[in-house]
Specification:
2 strands, single chain, binds benzoyl coenzyme A, 1% strand, mainly alpha, two-stranded antiparallel sheet, 13 helices, Ferritin
């Protein structure tokens, strides 16, 4: 078949709601977009462990420590599923990780902000994981089979993360004046970075046309951001916490909560490596990678020695 016919057949499958699987023909641009997005997503999960990981040793009690440990460990697992999904498209894990450590790869901007108090664990769980769930519920319906299936599992775990964060925020909002002030401060600091996490406005979203055409995304950046704002504003108001946006107002006609302008200069500075913690985050990843070298070597040695034995067992 010539490429036009293949493309038509490929798009007809997508329009019919079929999943595209690893061995199937796909346009090079579809493959490139998926590797770009899935690898950025994997890096986000792994770098996203750092702001919360910093508080594991400072959790106020054993229960909180166990919950936070489980959550951070989940994020490592999400990175695993996603690197695997990217590998089904022909990318190698080594090249993807090398791009992250060299500072060439992107990951979610929100993780380049510091976690300053214990209440940040609540704000990250409710706001950041809450935003991620909206985005990932959409991606669970995406046209590429391995990515959509990874998302189903990840979303189930993210729901626990969101509830963990929500529970913390509610508890501190009902707590002492100092706890209320601490949690309000955390919401103030994480609100705008979370809104930026949905990506640039649709008019500046260069990848969206291809992603929407091939149903990798089925909703735009602005549509998802609006869903998030509509969900969070009443929930925060219900526990007497405010949103740090003097221009926030409810539009009676659409029912939407309309936000003030997002600081895109700040967003792009963070994306380009100049956020408050970009250098610290990459440094931590490089250190972890170097310290894990012996584990990778041991696994590779085991695989080399185990392979002939396993082949012999199968043949026998
Ligand atoms: N940060 O054309 P656009 C988690 C880049 S982790 C950095 O709109 P697209 C969690 C974008 O890459 C889950 N860069 O892009 C973990 C593009 O540059 P390139 C994180 C961003 O792809 C631990 C350029 O800007 N979720 O839940 O159509 C603890 C133009 O943008 C960002 C995902 O990764 C950003 N925020 O849409 C707690 C979801 N936004 O690549 C929680 C998967 C945009 O052309 N990703 N850029 O050089 C997506 O859904 C989409 O990629 C995005 C952006 C919505 C993020």
């Amino acid at each position: 078949m010539i490429d036009d016919e293949r493309l038509n057949a490929f798009e007809a499958r997508i329009d019919a709601g079929e999943k595209i699987e690893p061995g199937d023909w796909m346009p090079d641009e579809y493959r490139r977009q998926l590797i770009r997005m899935i690898s950025q997503h994997a890096h986000s999960e792994v770098v996203g462990m750092l702001p919360e990981g910093a508080w594991i040793t400072r959790a106020p009690n054993l229960r909180q420590k166990l919950v936070l440990l489980a959550k951070v460990q989940d994020e490592a697992g999400h990175g695993q599923y996603l690197y695997h999904a990217a590998e089904t498209l022909g990318a190698t894990r080594e090249e993807l990780i090398e791009a992250l450590l060299a500072g060439r790869a992107k990951y979610a901007s929100v993780f380049n902000y510091p976690s300053l108090t214990w209440a940040d664990m609540g704000a990250i769980g409710w706001l950041v994981d809450g935003a991620a769930i909206l985005n990932q519920t959409m991606l669970a319906r995406c046209s590429y089979g391995p990515y959509s299936r990874a998302m189903v599992r990840i979303c189930a775990e993210e729901s626990f993360h969101k509830k963990q964060g929500q529970e913390m925020v509610i508890r501190y909002a009902r707590g002492t004046p100092a706890q209320r002030a601490m949690v309000q401060d955390a919401i103030n600091r994480w609100w705008w970075p979370t809104l930026m996490m949905f990506g640039p406005h649709d008019s500046d979203s260069t990848n969206s046309p291809a992603l929407l055409r091939w149903r990798i995304k089925t909703k735009t950046n602005d549509a998802l951001r609006q869903e998030f704002v509509n969900e969070l504003v009443p929930d925060l108001q219900a526990i007497d916490l405010s949103v740090p946006d003097a221009q926030l107002r409810r539009d009676a006609a659409s029912g939407n909560w309309l936000i003030g302008p997002i600081n895109w200069d700040e967003f792009w500075a963070v994306v380009r490596g100049n956020g408050p913690c970009n250098r610290e985050r990459l440094e931590a990843r490089r250190r972890a990678h170097a310290e894990g070298q012996w584990v990778r070597e041991a696994l590779a040695a085991y695989a080399t020695r185990a392979a002939p034995r396993e082949q012999a067992a199968v043949a026998g």
